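Thread: quick sanity check before group meeting

JM: Hey all, I'm pulling together slides for Thursday and realized we never actually wrote out the predicted structure for the chain we discussed last week. Dropping the sequence here so it's in one place. If anyone has concerns about the input, flag it before I start.
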Amino acid sequence: MRRSPLAAALVALACCASLAVPAAAPLSAHEDEAPARTAPLPVPVSPDQLLAPYYESLRQRVSLPEAGPNPALAPSLALTRIAFGSCNHQSAPQDYWAAIAAEAPQLFLMIGDNVYGDNAWDGDAGLESLRAAYALQASHPEFRAFRARIPMLATWDDHDFGLNDAGASFPMRRWAETLFEHFWNASDAVRARPGVYDSIITGPEGRRVQVILLDTRFFRSDLKRAPWSKERPPLGGYLPDESLDKTVLGEAQWAWLEAELARPADLRIIVSSTQVITQAHQFEGWTNFPVERARLLGALTRRAPSGVVILSGDRHAGGIYKAEHRGQTLWELTSSSLNLAFGSDVARASAREPDPARIGPFFPMENYGLVDIDWKARRLTLTLKDSASATLTSQSFAW
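JM (edit): ok, ran it. Output follows.
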């Protein structure tokens, strides 16, 4: 019987993981005596190591989709408008690109679930459904026209990482990373290290914007599942995990982030594919890992002098959030989704998820986000707009 690549890989992994090298047996005083048995020494083999040769051969045999040409962001450009969004389905209409282009953003951030490559996944190690999703997205003229005009940066979330709610234990993460980096034409720095986290600084002194794109997938520990209960409200299936050995970013990315936050900048845009401030639900988010969430908020408040704002997605709804931490006010704008809304009833969505940290309603319709920077007044304006470019909510604040 012919096995799929995944089945073959898992069988091999099971075999390799159980391999053991016996310790050297002591010499026997009598040749006819059986050598003393000793405990085997385990030989650990990770999925990354096991699958590396297969992915190297696969890369030689298949074509990798590309998003298409994209103008570089001029290092001297003082940004005044950034647009962003999340949750774009490659099979859904792409009309919103023209609406966002009409806002004249100088930079657009794709912050996760940029395609849905896991919906049709059949378990193959080559993630063919993810590769096909990228290829379909690249074929849309609306997307290609927008990308040809507006500089873009990207990070990922679970559906373009390869599997719903997956993290570091996803065996195919390395191939998903290869597909992501090739499609979005990732920087040399990103390609040189595990994960897809990245940052840029642009603008002259006094108007320097740092954009930090976190990777909340590649290194993230497994989630703690809640026991099923018919009485449990429909606000997620996970529980907060206080374990000190659990991580969202992994130590290498944490060290990188601390170094980035120490660099000179006037305003920092922190991009997290999942929500940071809110603790009102137990879907995916930093709320799943309270120790890591506190560590992130602490790092942001210890940053070198600058303004800061958090951008997030994932939720198929949008809103504005505010938190006080160590005497500082932190703001977050969640925008989701671009073309895969799960509803349109604002009152119902807001009532379903009451949240003291949210400023105003929760908007479940299709939406995108804008960050407007007033350098003279040192003020930011966060705006959430629907697919027809009507303003859903907006918040201004000084930094």
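AS: nice. The chain has a mean pLDDT of 91. Residues 62 and 285 are 34 Å apart (CA to CA).
JM: adding both to the slides.
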